[in-house]
Design a protein that fits this description.
Helix content: 25-40%
Number of helices: 20
Largest sheet: 9 strands, mixed
Structural class: alpha+beta
CATH architecture of the largest domain: 2-Layer Sandwich
Shape: globular
Distance between the termini: 55 Å
Strand content: 15-25%
Radius of gyration: 29 Å
CATH superfamily of the largest domain: Histidine kinase-like ATPase, C-terminal domain
């Protein structure tokens, strides 16, 4: 059961606990205001809203089981064994509390009522929004020995009161809904995304059983379950799976102070990046806040004191700075409190000032005991921090040299860079191009007003396996850092970015894919805000050039090629021209394979360097015709893990990944 000693609520939970703030009418007109949009993100938010209600029941000590089912026709069913939504008449609306909760925006037991001491529901907008955006919703409540049921269509009740449909020996709530296709253009739930969210919630609410079933396709049924008695310690081990661990025993702190609970787990790895995840009432706070600040303050103070006490740091030595503690740090900070104050519309930062001192105190007390009780683990942690400190000093000198010579100070840009004439960053873009040949074509074919070209020369450094001081000294990566003009790592200032589109342009083969991966690793590890703000793109050069007479077409995939061929053949048939569909293959002087299908000449591009400037402009660089992929981070945790597997120093996880996916590889260059 989840933290019963803190959260068990013996107060009366009935219709009087439900407080009404405002109506539901605007939801269907402006769904984006309530769930962030009508894309697949907003679609999944419907599940999160209902699940969060069940999690709140668990945090209140009234629920230890949640079952989620993905059913045929995109129907979602979520059931818990909590107290059940009240069904008696609400004193303000004069309707049943169940109908009020499901039809009035911000109606619930979390707005100053006595239903919940702490809850995560305030992060969202309640199950009423799920009801408003569903073509159909059914609520079943087990309460007072009966099973009550009420149905709705696009937020409107089909009956005046909940209907009793049976007897019940226990309590709980079941919500069944079907998202409205009038609202959501694409209704396709991701099994992986649902699993990821539920796994995280299960770690944060230890002792709760979460089961997920997918029966959407009869021949592909699957099920999964979570139950973590270890809570955040289990979460830390999950986050660090496959990494080289420094302190084998994770640090763990748990403190209850009146209506506030603090839970922290921490472990160091050999990574060069930190992974700190903070939550308030199970709501992710990616921008941190007072709870995270309290943790960092205590971490710095206690470890410095321990290092001085044990002689690891001499009296004459400077203390480790907060920056030294970041490399390799994996931490999860979870606080549960009444009336959380989230900053900004996205509620990504916790603003409660009082929580800083509580977290700092809890961390300091538990960490001092941990270091004394586990000296070997303490030594491993401090060795990692000391190594980071040395690297920081070396990196600062190298980085300062890069910045001094770079665009931030108005000095010379890299000699390889063909800059654009525009100084409006929002209108400017830079192509990071593989090879001198493609770089030359790109420089000739570009629009000089807003397009800059930076050719890559030399071997790219794998930033996953090296330190920042070596990165900023790299002959290949240093020009990128200078050209972007925004600094790197902790000194990154996105407001100084010189180009709002940073485009990776490499060949469509294995070597090109490797270069893209190396550059994406650089951007993910040291320029992550650029990805999160939508500044990083991948160019999509065509694979084929098809010509029939004077008509020229470009195909970006094999499917594109087949479609274009079919369209040309149909046009020829309509004009009663050649109908011969035979295929001949010939080889040009460079050994390049060309095909001729029904008189259609087909050229397969082996690389960007084969295109002349006009072709490169027309197919890959002209904003009116080009195709580009914007790089996003939909699941930072999974993205981080994949970078560790593919680019990290540990060989075994990469070997397992290759073995697992070997049979599904397509288009492998040999």
């Amino acid at each position: 059961m989840a933290d019963k000693d803190l959260q068990k609520n013996n107060e009366e939970y009935n219709a009087k606990s439900i407080q009404v703030l405002e109506g539901l009418e605007p939801v269907r007109k402006r769904p984006g205001m309530y769930i962030g949009g009508t894309s697949v993100d907003g679609l999944h938010h419907l599940i999160w809203e209902v699940v969060n209600n069940s999690i709140d029941e668990a945090m209140a000590g009234r629920c230890d089981s949640i079952i989620i089912k993905l059913l045929p026709d995109n129907v979602i069913e979520i059931e818990d064994n909590g107290a059940g939504i009240p069904v008696d008449k609400h004193p303000q609306t004069k309707k049943s509390a169940l109908e009020t909760v499901l039809t009035v925006l911000h109606a619930g037991g979390k707005f100053g009522g006595n239903g919940y001491k702490i809850s995560g529901g305030l992060h969202g907008v309640g199950v009423s929004v799920v009801n408003a955006l569903s073509i159909y919703l059914r609520a079943e409540v087990k309460r007072d020995g009966k099973v009550y049921m009420m149905e709705f269509e696009r937020g409107k009740p089909k009956t005046k009161e909940p209907v009793v449909i049976g007897k019940a020996k226990n309590t709980g709530t079941k919500i069944v809904f079907q998202a409205d296709p009038q609202i959501f253009p694409e209704i396709n739930y991701s099994w992986e995304r649902v699993l990821g969210y539920l796994r995280q919630q299960s770690y944060l609410t230890k002792g709760i059983s979460v089961k997920i079933y997918d029966t959407r396709e009869a021949d592909k049924e699957r099920a999964y379950g979570f139950l973590f008695d270890g809570g955040l310690v289990s979460y830390i081990k999950f986050l660090n799976r496959g990494k080289e661990i420094k302190n084998e025993m994770p640090f763990y702190a748990y403190k209850q102070q009146e209506d506030t609970l603090v839970e922290i787990a921490m472990q160091y790895t050999d990574s060069y990046k930190e992974h700190v995840f903070s939550f308030a009432n199970n709501i992710a706070t990616p921008e941190g806040g007072m709870h995270e600040a309290g943790f960092r303050t205590a971490l710095t103070r206690v470890i410095n004191a321990y290092a001085k006490k044990t002689g690891i740091l001499k009296e004459k030595d400077d203390n480790f700075t907060s920056e030294d503690f970041q490399e390799g740090l994996t931490a999860v900070i979870s606080v549960k409190l009444r009336n959380p104050q989230f900053e900004g519309q996205t509620k990504a930062k916790l603003g409660n000032s009082e929580i800083r001192g509580i977290v700092s105190s809890a961390t300091a007390e538990a960490l001092a005991e941990y270091l004394e009780a586990h000296p070997n683990n303490a030594k491993a942690i401090i060795s990692k921090i000391a190594l980071s400190s040395k690297a920081r000093l070396a990196a600062r000198a190298a980085k300062d040299a890069v910045i001094r010579k770079g665009a931030l100070e108005g000095m010379t840009l890299p000699g390889k860079l063909a800059d654009c004439s525009s100084r409006d960053a929002s209108q400017s873009e830079i192509y990071i191009v593989e090879g001198d040949s493609a770089g030359g074509s790109a420089k000739q074919g570009r629009n000089r007003r807003f397009q800059a070209i930076l050719p890559l020369r030399g071997k790219l450094v794998n930033v996953e396996k090296t330190t920042l001081d070596k990165i900023v000294k790299s002959d290949t990566l240093k020009p990128i850092i200078i050209a972007l003009g925004a600094g790197i790592g902790d000194s990154l200032d996105i407001s100084k970015l010189r180009y709002h589109k940073v485009i990776i342009m490499a060949d469509a083969d294995v070597d090109g894919a490797h270069i893209r991966t190396l550059l994406l690793t650089l951007f993910y590890r040291y320029f992550e805000p650029l990805i999160r703000n939508g500044h990083i793109y991948i160019a999509q050069p065509p694979l084929y050039r098809l010509q029939k007479g004077k008509d020229i077409h470009y195909a970006y995939t094999d499917q594109d090629k087949e479609r274009i061929i079919e369209e040309i053949k149909q046009k020829m048939d309509a004009n009663k021209k050649e109908k011969d569909s035979s295929i001949t293959v010939e080889t040009d002087e460079d050994g390049e394979i060309k095909e001729s299908i029904a008189g259609i000449n087909i050229q397969r591009y082996k690389g960007l360097g084969e295109m002349n400037p006009n072709q490169l402009w027309e197919t890959t660089m002209d904003p009116a015709t080009r195709l580009m992929l914007r790089v996003t981070i939909e699941d930072a945790e999974e993205a981080d893990k994949m970078f560790d597997i593919l680019m990290g120093s540990e060989v075994e996880p990469r070997r397992r990944f290759i073995q697992t996916h070997a049979k599904s590889v397509k288009n492998l260059d040999i």
